[in-house]
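Posted in: Structural Biology > Protein-Ligand Complexes

Title: Requesting predicted complex, BV8 in pocket

I'd be grateful if someone could produce the 3D structure tokens for the following input. Sequence and ligand are given below.
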Amino acid sequence: MSNIVILTGAGISAESGIETFRADTGLWAQHRVEDVATPEGFARDPARVVAFYNGRRSQAASVAPNAAHDALARLEAAHAGEVLVVTQNVDDLHERSGSNNLIHMHGALNSALCGACEHRWPAPLEMQVGQKCPACNAPAARPDIVWFGEMPYQMDRIFAALSRADIFVAIGTSGNVYPAAGFVAEAARAGARTLEINLEPSAVGSQFDDALLGPATQTVPEWVDSILAG
Ligand code: BV8
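-- Reply #1 --
Done. Output follows.
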């Protein structure tokens, strides 16, 4: 009975129509990271940051999960051991496909966070700057997103899962952002077999035991079928 930890990145949602970050025409070619994905950028120009995430929230709401998300939900339902999906994505396509054992390590578009008391509540489609927190009333609402320089969520739970993983798979992630890019080394240290699924080898591709190259909507269902076939 194997324990499987799966790290996903923007590539798994690309074929649903959500832009990745580091492609030539991706989000980071259109926006400066420092402006929209750091606490300092939010402090300088909250309207710009809130508008950036409002746009991405409405885009995520207009697309559907694809065959790769569906295959991971099918794996969780049918596999005898633990299946944990750790996603860097802030869209909700994994949960809409039916994945339940899921960690959003970089936050979620559909959640709002109070910068004063850390209360969380469902984000409206259009957040406003200075919206009041329903718990403490401070005008300190922000998107519940982990920006550069902030601590990703549920790291203790992720490292505990990596330490007991038999199989670690990274899907559609470029291996440029830490600590997620370090999970393959952590899993390998714990004795897991490691697999990268991507269009091309990532920045940490040489650290994986195996690679499956091709679009996620084809490669992920193929891999899930092979695991479920035993
Ligand atoms: C932290 C906000 C302390 C969310 C994002 C070690 C060394 C150097 C630097 C650091 C280090 N440790 C930490 C740092 C600093 C920093 C960092 O990593 N900097 C980098 C740039 C060097 N990290 C942090 O600040 C993090 N916090 O470290 O706290 C700490 C330390 C240790 C332990 C615990 C805590 C916080 C990082 C959070 C960043 N937040 N954005 C948002 O707006 O969405 S980053 C952003 O990048 C997104 O979250 C995104 O998910 C993430 C990763 O990007 P990818 O998902 O990989 O997307 P990308 O476009 O790059 O790649 C797409 C891939 O898909 C490609 O490979 C492509 O080939 C593939 N693909 C495309 N289409 C398909 C496909 N594959 C298959 N099928 C397809 N169809």
